[in-house]
Amino acid sequence: MVQGIANWNTGQTQEWLQQYVDDWVAFYRKHTSDGEVASYIPVLQQADPDDLGISIIGKSGMTVRSGDTEIPFTLQSISKVISFIVACMERGVSYMLNRVDVEPSGEAFNSIMHLEMHQVEKPFNPLINAGAITVSSILPGKTSDHRLEPIYLLLEQILGYRPELNVEVYESERDSSMRNRAIGYYLLETGFLESDLNVTLETYFKQCSIEVTIDDLARIGMVLANDGMDTKTGEEIIPRQIARIAKVLMLTCGMYDASGKFATYVGIPAKSGVSGGIVAAVPPRVREETMPFTDGCGIGVYGPALGDKGNSIAGIRLLRHIANQWDFSIF
Amino acid sequence: MVQGIANWNTGQTQEWLQQYVDDWVAFYRKHTSDGEVASYIPVLQQADPDDLGISIIGKSGMTVRSGDTEIPFTLQSISKVISFIVACMERGVSYMLNRVDVEPSGEAFNSIMHLEMHQVEKPFNPLINAGAITVSSILPGKTSDHRLEPIYLLLEQILGYRPELNVEVYESERDSSMRNRAIGYYLLETGFLESDLNVTLETYFKQCSIEVTIDDLARIGMVLANDGMDTKTGEEIIPRQIARIAKVLMLTCGMYDASGKFATYVGIPAKSGVSGGIVAAVPPRVREETMPFTDGCGIGVYGPALGDKGNSIAGIRLLRHIANQWDFSIF
Amino acid sequence: MVQGIANWNTGQTQEWLQQYVDDWVAFYRKHTSDGEVASYIPVLQQADPDDLGISIIGKSGMTVRSGDTEIPFTLQSISKVISFIVACMERGVSYMLNRVDVEPSGEAFNSIMHLEMHQVEKPFNPLINAGAITVSSILPGKTSDHRLEPIYLLLEQILGYRPELNVEVYESERDSSMRNRAIGYYLLETGFLESDLNVTLETYFKQCSIEVTIDDLARIGMVLANDGMDTKTGEEIIPRQIARIAKVLMLTCGMYDASGKFATYVGIPAKSGVSGGIVAAVPPRVREETMPFTDGCGIGVYGPALGDKGNSIAGIRLLRHIANQWDFSIF
Amino acid sequence: MVQGIANWNTGQTQEWLQQYVDDWVAFYRKHTSDGEVASYIPVLQQADPDDLGISIIGKSGMTVRSGDTEIPFTLQSISKVISFIVACMERGVSYMLNRVDVEPSGEAFNSIMHLEMHQVEKPFNPLINAGAITVSSILPGKTSDHRLEPIYLLLEQILGYRPELNVEVYESERDSSMRNRAIGYYLLETGFLESDLNVTLETYFKQCSIEVTIDDLARIGMVLANDGMDTKTGEEIIPRQIARIAKVLMLTCGMYDASGKFATYVGIPAKSGVSGGIVAAVPPRVREETMPFTDGCGIGVYGPALGDKGNSIAGIRLLRHIANQWDFSIF
User: Fold this and answer.
1) Which of B185, B193, C168, D289 can bridge B137 by disulfide, Cβ–Cβ 3.0-4.6 Å?
2) Where are the coiled-coil regions (chains A, B, C, D) (predicted)?
């Protein structure tokens, strides 16, 4: 490893880190051919499967970016974390935890079966579709735009700009996602939904279609890593308790059916989406002093070629490599 | 909170901490009446439901103990962590991860259904019974005593003494645990078992019946918190990678069907057993300086009155309280 | 039993039979209090739980009717048999059997779980909702009224008049049946539906809402008992093969989760609906000569108080009694 | 079809029928190559996959036999019908129906999942393994030989000789059937078993290993077709109610996961075993006078090459052909 570096957490080491990350991105880009671009929403298929990019932002603001860093993509399932945070902020944590459980499900993210089989009192967790749609139904507001407003406001506070809806993706989701409508009607029948189903699904499809970049994801990850506080001002953007719960859910349920393996091999809270994005939050660690980003960092990854569990295949391998090299695990 | 304490991690603060913990144990002891002693093994029913005790051992050796600290109890499911660690040490991590997955299951710990329903290639994780019995079949040795030997040796290295088998509990388990035999034969048919079923079950029942105290659990937790190293000598007792995986599994699957809630509300790797024991590993944290045990600690809890998910009901609440007060969460 | 009757199958014995049936209806009417009127569609709750009526029509035309014989009610699930028959007539038997299986499911009639769990290639059978909705999607016609036309025509041919839609029930079903919409979207996603979902569900809800009387059901049952032929003219109304398959499905899957028990205790092909109707088809039997209706008969029952499996509670007990008295079992 | 035959049910027509059946067996023997001999018990693999034989015995005693008629084979799952009948005779029908349900399960015959998933109060039916093992536990007698005695006695009464145990098959089953032991221990834990598990499994494996021929099966089928009465003496061998229930179960659950399709395409109560045997009971029918065996008949088939559902592949097709030609359907 790189030697003679007194303190990794300063800007002066950035170029050293940059070299490593460039190498690793170049190496793992070859792995994109092991995956395939998502096909369940037609418009997602237009992504370039060879793309791979990463952005790492430390508490000090030090940023290492490499690969395809400028490509916008939609949040997809990553939005589930944001909407759950916003719902907790709007409605209170205990209100939300009474309506959505926080247990890993062991079933596919789009399963209806586990709801029926277990005769559950509430969806298993807010990161499976049944839970996320329930969350979207609890967001206050009569229209989907009203419900999305606090999501946009939170993102604007974190990102410094107001992200936009990718209308084409939204319309593609809205028109093609029959399984989510099936889940929605099931939830409606069981009484889990708190508001009109159409508005709820519109909200859900829109939140999935918000467009971001890996820098945006890295900033979101950094705020979560920093327990919800702005890294510069120390201001609370997300209440600490809510930021913590979000990280727990990301660790236990964030990577679909591979969440346990991701926790085992990478060991950091992260959430992926079928667009190929991954957001990760690395909390401050007490580790060997020669490691970078010990004050915590946020990571954004984009790599639309997905593995069989629906996560960016090269993105996961890249994260695993970096996490092992720099000892990012929270365990 | 307690003020004017420059450094919580010294012996001189121990009496301050002791006061708090005594208060909390007294308070949560009343909660034991919300639970019930395990009934599935007859001999476990003899435990006193009012018992509650805790032992916390820091990296420096500072120890805070309170309540019923001297009562011996059997490891039960806590042994699943130990046997998985030992199997990884004996067989190698990749060998083991090819035979047992590391995903939360969303099903009851003693479920056979999920094996059949998902036509799994391997049990979901080593902390459900199907996974633990598979692990017991992989431990080297022709007899159960041979297989248990490295478990005893590891425990002896951590505890400083060789714990003993509670023969009465063992015989009670062996003779009454029909569900585990059902699981065993199912695993035998699917080809998951690597050795004779009777020896495997004997091994499994024996490892569950090893007798410990809360101090023992706290020591085990401390070694895990310290990434497998002896806190005094720095010697590697458990390889770091294996200690980390053990902590991941404890966090994601350690508290039966309440693992997600425990991670959310407490946020530390822990494993419970139906005897009422809980072992927890608190890794070093970067937190406010006024907090104790920032170098990490191990915790042992005993409280045989169980909640409906099979975890010590007062024990969980006590842990939650302490973790929140002292900011133990790894997130 | 009644004695001295040379030939039960003549009109002259009708008054003897009438006496018996009147007694039995009076007796089993008391059993209505063991059940409850269906609540899942609001308008069905308006039915009088004390109602009980039966109509038995023999091949010769001999009719025995008793109890509440004039009350109109909607077909509900009984329509599944009719629409399957019509779809087979319109599309061919092998076409249909490629799209819907004929296996009992062991799950609730409105289960989605079994579709997901078994990753089925087609719904288990046309008498569960998933199968029936699939059948409704296969009926030819661009609008629901076009699709219903051959159903009305078949019913008109059997009943001698064109039954009517109960608009209030239809609208109630359409607006309240969220589970069926969930099933519909699930089927849409899996590619089982052959046509527009809204038209399909409209068709399904309308077919369920066709209003009949017990005499109508008895006539339908008689035509099925007579292998699809008009009892007077011998004309083929339903092809024999299709009539036979309908009877098989009624026997194996016709009474929801109690189909096996109904086959065991009663032993005749029958289909119930949540409105409280039951249609039964008693094929000609070779039995002791002193039994009535050995040439076969059709039976219509109405009793809106349902047991816990969704079948008319008094209706089933009445049918069981009659079937045992008159040896109606096909086994 | 054959013409000019006044009465099919006489010996004089036997040679006409023989010609047909010989042709059909020759034709369907080619279909044996579409299947495979059972492999789950090693000794069953020794069967010759090309074998195919059928025996049809009418009420009058008229017998038509063709193909490989002399090969002995073991009852396997066919024994489930016999043991259920015997248990009903020994314990009473209502006692048995309180302990085993009579509903088709929709799951594989050797499923444990459905027991756990549905938290059933009793196994779904006596023809799945869980139900059959429960039945074996209810048979009176402290040893397996005591329990088998009434089974042997019933068979002796029907067959005219006492069949023998195939010890090699029995030992092979006993030593290799891990799934059945898994089921057994599951049943033991849930409290469904009424007696010692080892004796129960021994009984079950032995009943499966009783050796018969197709003539034997045809005789068993004939007695069931005749409502339990000896065709010559009219003596009751099996009470009528029990014979009827057996036929219901055979029709609804007798052909594993293909029971519904068999009922649809063939329409007669039948039970298959993995050894390749099928017993069928054709009750008396009111059908066109030119059909043979209208007084009912019993059929035994042997064809060890199995289809993917575990039934004799050529045997089922042969039965379907004959049933359609001679209109055997009970519907």
Assistant:
1) B193
2) none
**pLDDT confidence tier of residue D4, bands split at 50, 70 and 90:** very low
Query: A89 and A203: one domain?
Result: yes
**Measured between alpha carbons, how far is residue A83 from residues A75, A271, D59 in Å?**
11, 13, 74
Task: Specify if C2 maps to a domain.
Answer: no
What's the pLDDT at D5? Answer: 45
Pair C245, C304 in one domain: yes
Residues of chain C with C-beta less than 8 angstroms from the C-beta of A184: 182, 185
Residues of chain C found within 8 Å of residue A181, distances taken between Cβ atoms: 181, 185
Instruction: List the domain range (segments joined by +) for residue B135.
Output: 78-208
- pLDDT tens across C55-97, in order? 999 999 999 999 999 999 999 999 999 999 999 999 999 999 9
Last residue of a domain, one of A208, A230, A260: A208
Give the ipTM. Answer: 0.94
Cα(A96)–Cα(A140) distance, integer angstroms: 13
Which tokens belong to D28? 């369907």
Instruction: Inform me whether the pLDDT recorded for D175 exceeds 60.
Output: yes
Query: Which of B190, B69, B84 shows the shortest CA–CA distance to B138?
Result: B84
The C-alpha atoms of residue B300 and residue B69 are separated, in whole angstroms, by 9
B29 min Cα distance to partner chain D (Å): 33
In whole angstroms, what is the distance from residue A40 CA to residue A27 CA?
28
Count up the domains in chain A and report the number. Answer: 2
**B103 → closest Cβ in A102, A124, A260:** A260
pLDDT of residue D290: 75
Question: For chain B, which ranges sit under pLDDT 50?
Answer: 1-6
Q: Can A83 be counted among the known catalytic residues?
A: no
Same domain, B64 and B163: no
Q: Which residues of chain B are at the D interface, by a Cβ-Cβ cutoff of 8 Å?
A: 111-113, 116-117, 178-179, 181-186, 188-189
Is C232 in the same domain as C306? yes
What are the residue numbers of the active site of C?
Answer: 77, 80, 204, 256, 274
Last residue of a domain, one of D155, D180, D208: D208
The reply to whether B122 and B155 lie within a common domain is yes
Count of CB atoms situated within 10 Å of the CB of D69: 15
State the CATH number of the domain containing residue C298.
3.40.710.10
- What are the tens digits of pLDDT across the range C146-180? 999 999 999 999 999 999 999 999 999 999 899 99
The first and second tokens of residue D91, run together, are: 């314990």
